[in-house]
Amino acid sequence: MTTRLITPPVGMAVSLSAARSAARLNGSDFDAELEIDILAITEDAEFEMQRAIITRSYLATLDRFENRVRLAPSPVQSVTSVKYLDIEGVERTVPTEDYFVNTVATPGWVEPALGKQWPATLPRTGAVTIEFVSGYGLTDASTPAPIKKYLLAKIKEMYAPAGTAVSPHLVRLLDAFKVYS
């Protein structure tokens, strides 16, 4: 299975003003650089946790249906569509009532609804595509506090005077959010 980003997040995991304060910067002269730093640190944290912080859409591609399809990164908010190539090569959409999406599990998953089964697919690479949405929300207000604390602490370290010690323990703020599977 391959998963790729379709729609990137529209917001940042921490606000520019909070990052500016953490970096002890006055004014907006360094905002462009600071925004890049926020995005880079956020991406690093998301990789560490195997989670999406700000809402975005993904497309998972499979060669055939699996009984239960794992959807990552977490937290999965919803499944937009489940499509497949039928045995004649025609793209079809599985009706939403024919599958169940577990948005509580970490990672989330999708499987046939009770009494249903996945349809037969063309034996071809990429015969199944599942579009889904992951993330905590659209703005920095939805970022969980420990993750926000981690991101701002990393910004603070990044903008600290040369020679300032960095904490190897900051990453522990992310431990409760890591996905192990």
Give your account of this protein's structure.
The protein is of the alpha+beta class and 181 residues long. The chain has helices at 16-22, 31-49, 145-158, and strands at 2-7, 56-62, 69-71, 76-85, 91-93, 99-102, 108-112, 128-134. It has a five-stranded antiparallel sheet, with no helix packed on it. The chain has a three-stranded antiparallel sheet with strand order 3-7-6, with no helix packed on it. Helix 2 crosses helix 3 (145-158). The model has no long low-confidence stretch (mean pLDDT 95).
List the helices and strands and how they pair.
Elements: E1 2-7, H1 16-22, H2 31-49, E2 56-62, E3 69-71, E4 76-85, E5 91-93, E6 99-102, E7 108-112, E8 128-134, H3 145-158
Helix pairs in contact: 2-3
InterPro entries: Phage_CHP
Protein name: PhiE125 gp8 family phage protein
**Mean of the pLDDT scores?**
95
Rg calculated over all Cα atoms: 20 Å
In total, how many beta strands? 8
How helical, in percent, are the residues?
10-25%
Structural class: alpha+beta
What portion of the residues fall into strands of 2 or more residues? 15-25%
What oligomerization state is this entry in?
single chain
Poorly predicted segments: none
Give the strand order of the largest sheet, numbering strands 1, 2, ... along the chain: 1-2-8-4-5
Short description:
This is PhiE125 gp8 family phage protein. The chain is of the alpha+beta class.
Keyword list:
single chain; 181 residues; Hypothetical protein yqbg; 3-stranded antiparallel sheet; 8 strands; elongated
